[in-house]
Write a structure and sequence with these properties.
By secondary structure, the chain is of the alpha/beta class. The chain is about 40% helix and about 10% strand. The chain has 13 helices and ten strands. α5 packs parallel to α6.
Length: about 350
Protein backbone atom coordinates (compact mmCIF):
# COMPACT_ATOMS: atom_id res chain seq x y z
CA UNK A 1 0.00 0.00 0.00
CA UNK A 2 2.92 2.39 0.61
CA UNK A 3 3.72 3.15 -3.06
CA UNK A 4 0.08 3.93 -3.79
CA UNK A 5 -0.15 6.08 -0.63
CA UNK A 6 2.91 8.08 -1.62
CA UNK A 7 1.55 8.52 -5.16
CA UNK A 8 -1.57 10.12 -3.72
CA UNK A 9 0.60 12.41 -1.55
CA UNK A 10 2.62 13.48 -4.60
CA UNK A 11 -0.48 14.23 -6.66
CA UNK A 12 -1.89 16.25 -3.75
CA UNK A 13 1.35 18.20 -3.40
CA UNK A 14 1.54 19.00 -7.14
CA UNK A 15 -2.10 20.08 -7.20
CA UNK A 16 -1.62 22.28 -4.13
CA UNK A 17 1.25 24.02 -5.89
CA UNK A 18 -1.05 24.98 -8.74
CA UNK A 19 0.24 22.49 -11.32
CA UNK A 20 -1.79 19.84 -13.13
CA UNK A 21 -0.51 16.31 -12.54
CA UNK A 22 0.28 14.31 -15.68
CA UNK A 23 -2.29 11.51 -16.10
CA UNK A 24 -0.80 8.03 -15.98
CA UNK A 25 -0.28 6.07 -19.14
CA UNK A 26 -3.25 3.79 -19.72
CA UNK A 27 -1.22 0.65 -19.12
CA UNK A 28 -0.37 1.93 -15.64
CA UNK A 29 -4.01 2.23 -14.62
CA UNK A 30 -5.20 -0.49 -12.28
CA UNK A 31 -8.61 -2.16 -12.48
CA UNK A 32 -10.32 -1.55 -9.13
CA UNK A 33 -12.64 -4.52 -8.77
CA UNK A 34 -13.78 -3.59 -5.26
CA UNK A 35 -14.09 0.16 -5.75
CA UNK A 36 -17.17 1.89 -4.39
CA UNK A 37 -19.38 2.90 -7.35
CA UNK A 38 -19.35 6.66 -7.75
CA UNK A 39 -20.71 9.03 -10.40
CA UNK A 40 -19.25 12.56 -10.20
CA UNK A 41 -21.65 13.76 -12.93
CA UNK A 42 -24.84 12.45 -11.34
CA UNK A 43 -27.75 14.72 -12.31
CA UNK A 44 -25.54 16.98 -14.46
CA UNK A 45 -25.64 15.32 -17.89
CA UNK A 46 -27.79 16.90 -20.61
CA UNK A 47 -30.24 14.79 -22.57
CA UNK A 48 -28.63 12.85 -25.42
CA UNK A 49 -28.80 14.41 -28.87
CA UNK A 50 -31.45 11.83 -29.86
CA UNK A 51 -33.28 9.14 -27.86
CA UNK A 52 -31.00 6.12 -27.50
CA UNK A 53 -31.60 2.51 -28.48
CA UNK A 54 -29.59 0.18 -26.25
CA UNK A 55 -28.93 -2.97 -28.29
CA UNK A 56 -27.33 -5.16 -25.63
CA UNK A 57 -28.73 -6.04 -22.24
CA UNK A 58 -29.61 -9.15 -20.21
CA UNK A 59 -32.26 -9.48 -17.50
CA UNK A 60 -32.82 -12.34 -15.12
CA UNK A 61 -36.54 -11.63 -14.62
CA UNK A 62 -39.30 -9.12 -14.11
CA UNK A 63 -37.95 -7.86 -10.76
CA UNK A 64 -35.33 -5.90 -12.74
CA UNK A 65 -37.84 -4.28 -15.09
CA UNK A 66 -38.87 -1.32 -12.93
CA UNK A 67 -35.31 -0.13 -12.11
CA UNK A 68 -34.29 -0.65 -15.75
CA UNK A 69 -37.13 1.49 -17.10
CA UNK A 70 -36.44 4.20 -14.52
CA UNK A 71 -32.74 4.23 -15.44
CA UNK A 72 -33.58 4.34 -19.14
CA UNK A 73 -35.75 7.41 -18.53
CA UNK A 74 -32.94 9.18 -16.68
CA UNK A 75 -30.21 8.35 -19.21
CA UNK A 76 -32.33 9.08 -22.29
CA UNK A 77 -32.75 5.52 -23.54
CA UNK A 78 -35.94 4.95 -25.49
CA UNK A 79 -35.67 1.21 -26.20
CA UNK A 80 -33.55 -1.68 -24.93
CA UNK A 81 -32.85 -5.01 -26.59
CA UNK A 82 -33.07 -7.68 -23.88
CA UNK A 83 -31.34 -10.93 -24.81
CA UNK A 84 -32.36 -14.39 -23.73
CA UNK A 85 -29.52 -16.05 -21.82
CA UNK A 86 -28.44 -19.29 -20.13
CA UNK A 87 -28.11 -19.37 -16.36
CA UNK A 88 -24.31 -19.07 -16.76
CA UNK A 89 -24.75 -15.43 -17.78
CA UNK A 90 -26.37 -14.55 -14.45
CA UNK A 91 -24.56 -16.96 -12.12
CA UNK A 92 -20.98 -17.45 -13.26
CA UNK A 93 -20.42 -20.34 -10.84
CA UNK A 94 -23.03 -22.44 -12.63
CA UNK A 95 -21.66 -24.29 -15.64
CA UNK A 96 -23.48 -25.57 -18.67
CA UNK A 97 -25.83 -24.04 -21.19
CA UNK A 98 -29.01 -24.52 -19.17
CA UNK A 99 -32.24 -22.70 -18.25
CA UNK A 100 -32.12 -20.71 -21.50
CA UNK A 101 -35.66 -21.71 -22.41
CA UNK A 102 -36.94 -20.31 -19.11
CA UNK A 103 -35.13 -17.01 -19.67
CA UNK A 104 -36.48 -16.80 -23.22
CA UNK A 105 -39.98 -17.02 -21.74
CA UNK A 106 -39.10 -14.32 -19.21
CA UNK A 107 -37.82 -12.00 -21.94
CA UNK A 108 -40.93 -12.47 -24.08
CA UNK A 109 -43.02 -11.70 -20.98
CA UNK A 110 -41.05 -8.51 -20.28
CA UNK A 111 -41.73 -7.27 -23.79
CA UNK A 112 -45.46 -7.78 -23.25
CA UNK A 113 -45.30 -5.67 -20.08
CA UNK A 114 -43.36 -2.88 -21.84
CA UNK A 115 -43.94 -3.39 -25.58
CA UNK A 116 -42.68 0.07 -26.55
CA UNK A 117 -39.52 -0.10 -24.42
CA UNK A 118 -38.31 -3.73 -24.48
CA UNK A 119 -37.23 -5.46 -27.71
CA UNK A 120 -37.12 -9.23 -27.07
CA UNK A 121 -34.31 -11.40 -28.48
CA UNK A 122 -34.28 -15.14 -27.77
CA UNK A 123 -31.16 -17.21 -27.33
CA UNK A 124 -30.81 -20.35 -29.43
CA UNK A 125 -28.52 -23.22 -28.45
CA UNK A 126 -27.54 -25.22 -31.54
CA UNK A 127 -27.00 -28.37 -29.47
CA UNK A 128 -30.79 -28.53 -28.97
CA UNK A 129 -32.10 -30.96 -31.56
CA UNK A 130 -35.15 -28.81 -32.24
CA UNK A 131 -33.27 -25.48 -32.32
CA UNK A 132 -34.56 -24.32 -35.74
CA UNK A 133 -38.16 -25.15 -34.87
CA UNK A 134 -37.79 -23.48 -31.48
CA UNK A 135 -36.74 -20.31 -33.24
CA UNK A 136 -39.69 -20.51 -35.61
CA UNK A 137 -42.02 -20.82 -32.63
CA UNK A 138 -40.42 -17.91 -30.78
CA UNK A 139 -40.73 -15.68 -33.85
CA UNK A 140 -44.43 -16.54 -34.08
CA UNK A 141 -44.76 -15.42 -30.45
CA UNK A 142 -43.05 -12.06 -30.92
CA UNK A 143 -39.27 -12.59 -30.79
CA UNK A 144 -37.63 -9.73 -32.70
CA UNK A 145 -34.11 -11.14 -32.94
CA UNK A 146 -31.65 -13.84 -31.89
CA UNK A 147 -28.65 -14.12 -29.56
CA UNK A 148 -26.01 -16.74 -30.37
CA UNK A 149 -23.17 -17.69 -28.03
CA UNK A 150 -21.38 -19.99 -30.47
CA UNK A 151 -17.86 -18.65 -30.88
CA UNK A 152 -17.77 -17.48 -27.26
CA UNK A 153 -15.77 -20.39 -25.76
CA UNK A 154 -12.11 -21.22 -25.81
CA UNK A 155 -11.99 -24.10 -28.30
CA UNK A 156 -14.03 -26.72 -30.10
CA UNK A 157 -15.73 -29.26 -27.88
CA UNK A 158 -15.24 -27.37 -24.63
CA UNK A 159 -18.61 -25.96 -23.69
CA UNK A 160 -20.85 -24.60 -22.73
CA UNK A 161 -20.65 -22.23 -25.69
CA UNK A 162 -18.41 -23.08 -28.62
CA UNK A 163 -19.17 -26.77 -29.08
CA UNK A 164 -19.14 -26.87 -32.89
CA UNK A 165 -17.69 -24.93 -35.83
CA UNK A 166 -19.61 -21.77 -36.67
CA UNK A 167 -20.46 -23.20 -40.08
CA UNK A 168 -21.61 -26.56 -38.72
CA UNK A 169 -24.86 -27.78 -40.39
CA UNK A 170 -26.72 -27.44 -37.08
CA UNK A 171 -25.91 -23.73 -36.97
CA UNK A 172 -26.54 -23.37 -40.69
CA UNK A 173 -30.10 -24.57 -40.09
CA UNK A 174 -30.52 -21.78 -37.51
CA UNK A 175 -29.06 -19.20 -39.92
CA UNK A 176 -31.64 -20.27 -42.51
CA UNK A 177 -34.49 -19.41 -40.13
CA UNK A 178 -32.82 -16.11 -39.24
CA UNK A 179 -32.58 -15.16 -42.92
CA UNK A 180 -36.10 -16.37 -43.66
CA UNK A 181 -37.51 -13.87 -41.16
CA UNK A 182 -34.87 -11.14 -41.70
CA UNK A 183 -33.99 -11.30 -38.00
CA UNK A 184 -31.07 -9.32 -36.57
CA UNK A 185 -28.62 -11.56 -34.73
CA UNK A 186 -26.29 -10.56 -31.90
CA UNK A 187 -23.46 -13.04 -32.35
CA UNK A 188 -20.99 -13.16 -29.45
CA UNK A 189 -17.88 -14.28 -31.33
CA UNK A 190 -14.30 -14.03 -30.15
CA UNK A 191 -12.98 -13.10 -33.58
CA UNK A 192 -9.33 -13.49 -32.58
CA UNK A 193 -9.90 -17.16 -31.73
CA UNK A 194 -12.39 -18.11 -34.43
CA UNK A 195 -11.30 -15.89 -37.30
CA UNK A 196 -11.68 -18.30 -40.20
CA UNK A 197 -15.00 -19.75 -39.02
CA UNK A 198 -16.60 -16.34 -38.50
CA UNK A 199 -15.31 -15.03 -41.82
CA UNK A 200 -16.85 -18.03 -43.61
CA UNK A 201 -20.21 -17.41 -41.93
CA UNK A 202 -20.23 -13.73 -42.89
CA UNK A 203 -19.16 -14.52 -46.46
CA UNK A 204 -21.62 -17.36 -47.07
CA UNK A 205 -24.51 -15.49 -45.40
CA UNK A 206 -24.10 -11.97 -46.82
CA UNK A 207 -27.71 -10.95 -46.11
CA UNK A 208 -27.73 -12.09 -42.47
CA UNK A 209 -27.63 -8.95 -40.27
CA UNK A 210 -24.91 -9.70 -37.72
CA UNK A 211 -23.88 -7.62 -34.72
CA UNK A 212 -20.62 -8.76 -33.11
CA UNK A 213 -20.56 -7.09 -29.66
CA UNK A 214 -17.66 -5.57 -27.72
CA UNK A 215 -15.93 -4.36 -30.91
CA UNK A 216 -15.93 -8.08 -31.84
CA UNK A 217 -13.45 -8.58 -28.96
CA UNK A 218 -10.77 -7.12 -31.25
CA UNK A 219 -10.24 -3.63 -29.86
CA UNK A 220 -6.58 -4.37 -29.14
CA UNK A 221 -5.99 -4.23 -32.89
CA UNK A 222 -8.20 -1.60 -34.49
CA UNK A 223 -6.82 -2.58 -37.91
CA UNK A 224 -8.73 -5.85 -37.60
CA UNK A 225 -11.88 -3.99 -36.58
CA UNK A 226 -11.66 -1.77 -39.65
CA UNK A 227 -10.78 -4.64 -41.97
CA UNK A 228 -13.79 -6.66 -40.82
CA UNK A 229 -16.14 -3.77 -41.42
CA UNK A 230 -14.49 -2.91 -44.75
CA UNK A 231 -15.09 -6.41 -46.09
CA UNK A 232 -18.47 -7.30 -44.59
CA UNK A 233 -21.31 -4.79 -45.12
CA UNK A 234 -23.66 -7.08 -43.15
CA UNK A 235 -21.64 -6.63 -39.94
CA UNK A 236 -22.23 -4.19 -37.05
CA UNK A 237 -20.49 -3.83 -33.67
CA UNK A 238 -21.58 -2.43 -30.33
CA UNK A 239 -19.50 -0.41 -27.88
CA UNK A 240 -20.34 -2.42 -24.75
CA UNK A 241 -17.72 -4.30 -22.75
CA UNK A 242 -19.65 -6.27 -20.11
CA UNK A 243 -18.56 -7.18 -16.58
CA UNK A 244 -16.76 -4.51 -14.53
CA UNK A 245 -13.29 -5.92 -15.28
CA UNK A 246 -13.97 -6.01 -19.03
CA UNK A 247 -15.64 -2.59 -18.87
CA UNK A 248 -12.58 -1.14 -17.18
CA UNK A 249 -10.18 -2.81 -19.60
CA UNK A 250 -12.18 -1.56 -22.58
CA UNK A 251 -12.15 2.01 -21.29
CA UNK A 252 -8.43 1.67 -20.62
CA UNK A 253 -7.71 0.54 -24.18
CA UNK A 254 -9.62 3.48 -25.64
CA UNK A 255 -7.94 5.89 -23.22
CA UNK A 256 -4.53 5.13 -24.70
CA UNK A 257 -5.59 5.52 -28.36
CA UNK A 258 -8.80 7.56 -28.62
CA UNK A 259 -7.87 9.12 -31.97
CA UNK A 260 -7.30 5.70 -33.52
CA UNK A 261 -10.63 4.34 -32.30
CA UNK A 262 -12.39 7.52 -33.42
CA UNK A 263 -10.97 7.15 -36.93
CA UNK A 264 -12.31 3.61 -37.19
CA UNK A 265 -15.78 4.83 -36.19
CA UNK A 266 -15.52 7.73 -38.64
CA UNK A 267 -14.59 5.28 -41.40
CA UNK A 268 -17.78 3.30 -40.71
CA UNK A 269 -20.22 5.73 -39.08
CA UNK A 270 -23.22 3.50 -39.84
CA UNK A 271 -21.91 0.33 -38.17
CA UNK A 272 -21.47 1.08 -34.47
CA UNK A 273 -24.28 0.90 -31.91
CA UNK A 274 -24.77 1.82 -28.25
CA UNK A 275 -24.89 -1.14 -25.85
CA UNK A 276 -24.32 -1.71 -22.14
CA UNK A 277 -24.32 -5.46 -21.27
CA UNK A 278 -24.67 -4.80 -17.53
CA UNK A 279 -26.40 -8.17 -16.91
CA UNK A 280 -29.25 -7.20 -14.59
CA UNK A 281 -30.10 -9.58 -11.75
CA UNK A 282 -31.79 -9.45 -8.36
CA UNK A 283 -28.43 -8.74 -6.71
CA UNK A 284 -29.17 -5.82 -4.37
CA UNK A 285 -26.28 -3.63 -5.55
CA UNK A 286 -27.56 -3.63 -9.13
CA UNK A 287 -30.25 -1.11 -8.31
CA UNK A 288 -31.62 1.82 -10.32
CA UNK A 289 -28.76 4.11 -9.30
CA UNK A 290 -26.12 1.57 -10.33
CA UNK A 291 -27.82 0.89 -13.67
CA UNK A 292 -28.18 4.61 -14.38
CA UNK A 293 -24.56 5.28 -13.49
CA UNK A 294 -23.07 2.56 -15.70
CA UNK A 295 -25.33 3.33 -18.64
CA UNK A 296 -24.21 6.95 -18.32
CA UNK A 297 -20.51 6.04 -18.37
CA UNK A 298 -20.99 4.64 -21.89
CA UNK A 299 -22.47 7.99 -22.90
CA UNK A 300 -19.49 9.75 -21.32
CA UNK A 301 -17.07 7.54 -23.27
CA UNK A 302 -18.73 8.51 -26.54
CA UNK A 303 -19.59 12.16 -25.88
CA UNK A 304 -16.92 13.69 -23.66
CA UNK A 305 -13.27 14.68 -24.02
CA UNK A 306 -12.58 13.38 -20.52
CA UNK A 307 -14.64 11.41 -18.03
CA UNK A 308 -14.29 9.37 -14.86
CA UNK A 309 -14.92 5.70 -14.14
CA UNK A 310 -14.73 4.31 -10.62
CA UNK A 311 -13.37 0.95 -11.83
CA UNK A 312 -10.00 2.39 -12.93
CA UNK A 313 -7.25 4.14 -11.01
CA UNK A 314 -5.33 7.16 -12.21
CA UNK A 315 -7.86 9.95 -12.59
CA UNK A 316 -9.82 11.12 -15.65
CA UNK A 317 -9.95 9.02 -18.82
CA UNK A 318 -9.85 10.32 -22.38
CA UNK A 319 -13.17 9.96 -24.16
CA UNK A 320 -13.96 9.78 -27.86
CA UNK A 321 -15.70 13.18 -28.05
CA UNK A 322 -17.68 12.13 -31.14
CA UNK A 323 -19.52 14.55 -33.39
CA UNK A 324 -23.29 15.00 -33.25
CA UNK A 325 -23.59 13.20 -36.58
CA UNK A 326 -21.73 10.13 -35.30
CA UNK A 327 -23.67 10.11 -32.03
CA UNK A 328 -26.98 10.28 -33.88
CA UNK A 329 -26.01 7.16 -35.79
CA UNK A 330 -24.69 5.25 -32.78
CA UNK A 331 -27.64 6.17 -30.57
CA UNK A 332 -30.51 5.75 -33.04
CA UNK A 333 -30.09 5.35 -36.78
CA UNK A 334 -27.68 2.42 -36.88
CA UNK A 335 -29.81 0.43 -34.45
CA UNK A 336 -32.88 1.07 -36.60
CA UNK A 337 -31.01 -0.18 -39.67
CA UNK A 338 -29.85 -3.35 -37.90
CA UNK A 339 -33.17 -4.07 -36.20
CA UNK A 340 -35.60 -3.13 -38.92
CA UNK A 341 -33.71 -2.64 -42.18
CA UNK A 342 -33.61 -4.90 -45.18
CA UNK A 343 -30.64 -7.21 -45.74
CA UNK A 344 -27.69 -5.64 -47.53
CA UNK A 345 -27.32 -7.24 -50.94
CA UNK A 346 -23.76 -8.23 -51.88
CA UNK A 347 -21.97 -5.31 -53.54
CA UNK A 348 -24.71 -2.81 -52.77
CA UNK A 349 -22.80 -0.81 -50.16
CA UNK A 350 -19.70 -0.48 -52.31
CA UNK A 351 -21.77 0.60 -55.31
CA UNK A 352 -23.60 3.22 -53.27
CA UNK A 353 -20.34 4.67 -51.99
CA UNK A 354 -18.98 4.97 -55.52
CA UNK A 355 -22.07 6.91 -56.57
Amino acid sequence: MKPLFYSFLLIGYITACGATPTPPKSGQRAVLMNAEPNDPLKGQRPDPIVPITNVHEHMMGDSELEPLIAAMDTVGIERTVVLGSPIYTFKLGMNGFTEHDANNEAVLGLSQLEPDRIIPFVVIYPEDEDAPQKLQNYVARGARGVKLFAGHGASHGHGPFHTMPLDDPRLTAVYDVIKEHNLPVLFHVNYAKFTDEFERVLTTNPTMKVLCPHFCLTLRDTRKVKSLLDRHPNLWMDVSFGWIQFQAEGYRRIDVKPETVRKVIEAHPDRFLYGTDLVLTDYENKDEEWITMNMSFYRDLLERKTYSYYGLSGGPLTGLNLSETLLTGIYRDNATAWLEGLPVAPGTEAENKEQ
